Each structure stands twice: as structure tokens, then as C-alpha cells.
Amino acid sequence: GLKKKADTKGGVATGAGPGYQERETWTRQMDFIMSCVGFAVGLGNVWRFPYLCYKNGGGVFLIPYLLIVFVGGIPIFFLEIALGQFMKAGSINVWNIAPLFKGLGYASMVIVFFCNTYYIMVLAWGFYYLIKSFNATLPWSTCNNEWNTPSCIEIFHQQDCSNGSLSNATVTGNMTCAELEDARSPIIEFWENKVLNISSGLDEAGQVNWELTLCLMAVWVLVYFCVWKGVKSTGKIVYFTATFPYVVLIILLVRGVTLPGAYNGIMYYIKPDWSKLQEAQVWIDAGTQIFFSYAIGLGALTALGSYNRFNNDCYKDAFILALINSGTSFFSGFVVFSILGFMAAEQGVDVSQVAESGPGLAFIAYPKAVSLMPVAPLWAALFFFMLLLLGLDSQFVGVEGFITGILDLFPGKYQHRYKREIAVALCCLLCFIIDLSMVTQGGMYVFQLFDYYSASGMTLLWQALWECIVVAWVYGADRFMDDVARMIGYRPFPWMKWCWSFLTPCLCMGIFLFHLVNYKQLTYNNVYVYPWWGEVIGWCLALSSMLCIPVSLLYKLFRAKGTLRERWAHLTSPVWGAHHLEYMAPDIKSLSSLSPGTDDNKVIIFESVM
């Protein structure tokens, strides 16, 4: 095929053909940066990083964190964006660079689909809390609602009980100290009895919570209308959803620092504990957190990069984005811990007793702290509005990445005017139907299954490991560095190449094996243990993405013809797109003028240039 193309137009290839559509690009480069910030800066930065930092020795945690950022985070982040930009394709077709490994694309599509499905639940809960915040008294601050139980108590007086002499004295109202042990705060009751209305276990689904279903519907509709027109419109919406959370974070920080007890909370967050560096768990936590918060292995970064101009400087972008991402994580720790410190001071307990991570921080610890402040509804509304925006842009880009991958499978020949709009509608609808299982009374158990297995650290590490192997060893790290140089105009620092070839795969492999060895059964609140069949479902979710790679690899090898070496050579030679032939054409012209000869000469030169 190359020979024929090289004959035409004196070496300028015309592989475009009639079906070749010009891919849309970002209106401005800033749109791309903002979308990446919106995607990568999500809820994990606010609710996971501060907690990990506090748990793993405060300021010391930054040492393993930064090391892994430079060895694993930035190299793969850059790899994904550069791949998308170079191949101008979504997460599946980008692996035309080594067609044998297209399974990588399918795996990332499976992961991002699961992510889109369960991540939206957090937004639905946040939306629900946001609506409930517009009350003069916050519904989770009092004990006299219909969902409260008799053991609900608004103010704990643990310190009166800790004296010991008062062991059976009545402390608050008519409760003895023994009863105080079992007492529950109104916020936990609001979360478990009202919002989740939680059942006894995974096997008991119960009925659907209508208020939550409406919230879920509203959020999906919002996502649909933000994504349906493609990057031209998403690129504009993201300006608001990516920057406004920072405004809210700064407002909350100013409010947090002025509260009594804030100083203790912040010291808790940063105080270094050097002994932690010897523990393997600290390094594992750092690695997993980076892979999570950099949104690596989901194929969405590839999709965003594919809308770049071919000669955009994605190397510089990768560093800017990494800085913003890690900076936000670190900064939001001050916000979270200043408020946790205030809460600990109000209740007279240690900060370690109120520090939480994940949904617990967002829907229990934080609302509780807010209810102790003056003008509580305002701070609650602000916080949940920020939560909603942080999650929404991650959701947009996740859906965007999924749709890009799907649409790239059906190029020019399926032209329909509303192709994209219909695809997005079907995707949203399918996810919504699956989400209905998560708004039932047993929904929280389903949510945790998805969270723990479908897009866990394991699946992302497996994905990243293969990405590095394919680019560095199958396609060739030096060869890819040449391609990057052709795009951005200079060669990146060779550190990237060493990372792709040796350091990052070893890091991924190490953390992956550690996860496997230290595998623990999934529990809810450390009390409810999942049944065996629940765990089987979880492993099916995890393996559904992980097995894509080896299964499709073997399938393609068996289907091909020839000896094994021929099959390998054939299946690992890249399939170039029309734009590659255009970009490479100038070199061919200058070269072919040097060697006046037969057409065969041209072909050889053409291939060597490639």
C-alpha cells in the first residue's frame, strides 16, 4: 500500500480518501489545559489526599509522594497525552501504534465506563445535601426529625465520663455514661437513615429512594447537555467548573483558619513522623493515590490529547498539569484539617478521632463541622456546591473519553447528523439504568463494590504497566521520542525514556504485587463483611477490564497468518492515519529530490522516514 501511495503526487501521500474527516480541535489551547485540570482535579484531591497525608506521617508523606510523581505520575501522564495527540484518536484507536495491543484500549473503555457509572452517585448525594442546605436549620444538626432514633444525641460530653467517678451519673438529659457509648450523632443518622436508608446487607435491596433518584436524574441530564456537542462546548463549560472550586476553597480556607482549634488541626496534618518512611504501606498509598488522582489508565487523557493541534507542546503541558494537580491536593489539606481541628476542639476530642476519608469526610465529618459554625447553611451550601463542581468536570471528561473511543470505532462510513448526540444519550441512559441499583436501600453496598474493584488501584496499575511496555519495548522508546520531537520541535529530557522503559514498569509491578499479596476482604464500616458471591461479582468487575489485554492479544495472534515471527511483525507494525502521511510528506519531498531513481527508491525512503 505504501508503494502505491508514494507514486502519487510525487511522494505526497493521499491516504486521506473521501471518508477522511478533519478531526475537531480545541478552540484555544487553554480549553485543553482547563479540561485536563477539571478532569484530574477531582474529589480525590479534597477527600483522599489530606487523609492519606495525615495517616502516613504528615509532611513526610510528601517524600514518597513526590518521588513517585516523577517516576510514575508525570511520565505516564505525558505518555497518554502525547499518544493521543500523535495518533489523533480516542482511547481504542490510539493503539493502532501496535495493533496487537488494542486490548489496552478496550480495557480503558471498560474502566472508564465503570467509573462514570459509580462516580455519579457521589454527585447525586452531594446534590441532595446541597438542596437540603437551603434550610434555616440544617436537617442534620438536630435530633427531632422522623428519621432519628432514641439514641440520637446532639452534644457529646465524653470528657465528663472519662473521669471515671461519674460512671453512672446522668450527663446529658437522661442518658447515663454507659448509654452514651452507643449514642449516635444526628449527622450519622441523617446519612444512614435518611439519605441512604441503608439495609442490612448486599442481599437485601429494599426499595428505591425516590428523592435520590430524582437527584441522580438531574445530574445525568446536566452531564448530557454539557457533553453532547463535543469539545467545542465542553471546553467552555470547564472554564467555570474547573476554576470556581478554587474560589470556594480559598473562601473556606479563610473561614477555617479563623476558627478556634484550627491551628491544632493543621499541625496534625503537617507534623512529620519520620518513622513512617520504613513502612511499605506508606509508599503503596502514595503510588495508588497518584495513579488515581492523575486519572491515569482511563483513556480520557488520550481522548483530550487527541483534540490538540499536532504540534502543540504537550511536554510542557504535562508538567503544568502535574503541578496544578498535586498543588491542589496539598492545598485542600489545609482547608480540611483546619475545619477538622475546629470540630475536635468543639467536641473536646483528639483530631485523630474526627479525621475521615472518602464519602465519610464529605457527608459526615464536614457537614457536622458546618453545623457548629455561625451562618451554617451558607457554608454547607458553598461546600456542596464546590463538591458538585469538582465532581462534575471529572464526570464530563470521563463521559467524553468514553464517547470519543466509541465514535472513533465508527469512522466516516457511518455518517449521521446527530451521531454524537445519540451516542451520548445512549451512554447516559445505560449508566443511569445501572445506577438505579445504587439508589436502593442496599445501594451503598453496590457502590462500594464498584469503588473497591472496578476502578481500584490494581486495575489502573495493570493498565499503566502495559502502556509502558507497549510504547517502550514493542513500539520503541527512542522511536516514540522521535515522534514526540517531531510534534513539539525538540527532544524531551531522556529521563522520560528511562522511566517508560525501566522505572515506571518496575514501580507499577511492585505496587501491583503488593496489592495482590495484601488483599483484604471488602467490608462496610469495618463491621459488615460482604458475602462470598458479592466478592465474586467484585472480581468479575476487576477482571472484565484486566483480561481484555491478554485475551485480545492471544485472539489476534491466533487469527493472523504465517509463522509466529511473521504474525508478530505484522501485528506490531503501526497503522498510520491520514494526518501522519501529511506531516511526514515534506521530509519525503526533500529526500526524494536527493535520490533521483525508481519508484522503489522512494518507497524505501518513505518507510525509513516513518
UniProtKB/TrEMBL annotation:
Residues that span the membrane, as ranges: 32-50, 62-83, 104-131, 210-231, 243-270, 290-307, 319-344, 378-410, 422-440, 460-477, 498-516, 536-558
Location within or outside the cell: Membrane
Key words, A-Z: Disulfide bond, Membrane, Metal-binding, Sodium, Symport, Transmembrane, Transmembrane helix, Transport
Binding sites annotated in the UniProt record for Na(+): 38, 40-41, 45, 293, 325, 390, 393-394
Disulfide bonds: 143-152
InterPro entries given in the database record: Na/ntran_symport, SNS_sf
GO molecular function, one term: gamma-aminobutyric acid:sodium:chloride symporter activity
Entry GO CC: plasma membrane
One Pfam family linked to the record: SNF
Tagged with keyword Transport: yes
Family membership: Belongs to the sodium:neurotransmitter symporter (SNF) (TC 2.A.22) family.
Protein's recorded name: Transporter
